[in-house]
Design brief:
CATH architecture of the largest domain: 2-Layer Sandwich
Distance between the termini: 79 Å
Helix content: 40-55%
GO molecular function, one term: nucleic acid binding
Domain Transposase IS30-like HTH: 7-44
CATH topology of the largest domain: Nucleotidyltransferase, domain 5
Strand content: 5-15%
Protein name: Transposase
Structural class: alpha/beta
InterPro entries: Homeodomain-like_sf, IS30-like_HTH, RNaseH_sf
Organism: Phytophthora megakarya
Shape: rod-shaped
Largest sheet: 6 strands, mixed
Radius of gyration: 36 Å
CATH superfamily of the largest domain: Ribonuclease H-like superfamily/Ribonuclease H
Order of helices and strands: HHHHHHHEEEEHEHHEHHH
């Protein structure tokens, strides 16, 4: 037996009217020449689809596909995806969306400085220039690497009103080293300026040949450059946003109170510092190998 014609809206209305008049399903089916199952289905079916309860979705299907495709093909963070595609949802919503995709693997992004094209070109020029000089084996023994570091010690107090107040003690220290030895560790009091920097160099780093400068304002000011020029010390033109090219950045032990930092620096052996100094050629070559981008140092 073949299927009958689709039930029209007029027939649906008649079925419901007869049913409200207390006519049975079989009688309605005989009267309208329809099957009892068809009549029963019409009477049980809701008049219209109910609305879904709860908050509406913050992302459309198109936006979901767009975000997942971008995350799979490019190196984006959740915040960058939200900003790039102008999403109205929160960063947490994007993170939860990506976590539900089986073939996407989360990896924590490096906390490094953003490099523009100009930064990359400057890094490459610096690496090529020093790599060429290093082949003559005269450049690295003549360079003093220096840096200042902030050390913090966090501690908290619990007040009567159950309000946690977090405080931190701050200490700033400076140090330098080269192939011939290392300086003493100097505790820097208060906010530093060019005058303080010049004084510390004069007192604690008197045997300089060539010095590094990380482009901090107190290192690159006219006053500082004039001082180095007067004492006959050549400053390396250091590329911006490139702390990973300075080997002293890799020796940051025990950033706590003054005594602990002093002990850590004084315990540094020259063979350890020499090993860091020996990484300079590799640092320069890796800049070119990674197309001027960040290195692993």
């Amino acid at each position: 037996m073949g299927r009958g014609a689709p039930i029209s809206d007029e027939e649906r209305g008649r079925m419901k009217g007869l049913y409200e008049a207390e006519m049975g399903v079989r009688n309605i089916a005989r009267r309208l020449e329809r099957s009892p199952n068809g009549v029963s289905y019409v009477l049980r079916a809701p008049e219209k689809t109910k609305k879904k309860r709860g908050r509406p979705r913050s992302l459309t299907d198109s936006q979901v596909r767009q975000v997942v495709r971008a995350a799979a093909t490019e190196n984006y963070s959740a915040a960058e995806l939200k900003a790039t595609y102008g999403l109205s949802c929160s960063v947490g919503t994007v993170q939860r969306l990506l976590s539900r995709v089986d073939y996407l693997v989360y990896s924590k992004m490096d906390r490094t400085l953003h490099l523009t094209k100009e930064h990359m070109l400057a890094r490459l020029e610096f690496a090529q220039r020093l790599s060429t000089a290093a082949q003559k084996e005269v450049v690295w023994p003549m360079i003093i690497f220096s840096d200042e570091k902030n050390g913090y010690k966090h501690f908290g107090d619990t007040c009567v009103a159950r309000i946690a107040a977090t405080r931190r003690a701050k200490m700033r220290e400076g140090r330098s080293f080269g192939s011939k030895g290392k300086s003493e560790l100097v505790v820097l009091e208060g906010r530093q300026n060019s005058g303080h920097y010049i004084y510390n160099v004069s007192e604690h780093c008197s045997r300089l040949l060539t010095s590094t400068s990380d482009n901090a304002s107190i290192h690159s000011s006219n006053e500082t450059r004039m001082f180095f020029h007067e004492i006959g010390v050549q400053l390396l033109d250091w590329p911006a946003r490139s702390p990973n090219l300075n080997p002293i950045e890799n020796y940051n032990s025990v950033p706590e109170l003054t005594a602990a930092v002093m002990k850590a620096w004084n315990s540094a052996k020259m063979n350890e510092l020499q090993d860091l100094l020996d990484t300079m050629p590799a640092r320069c070559f890796e800049v070119a190998r990674k197309n001027n981008d960040k290195t692993h140092y």
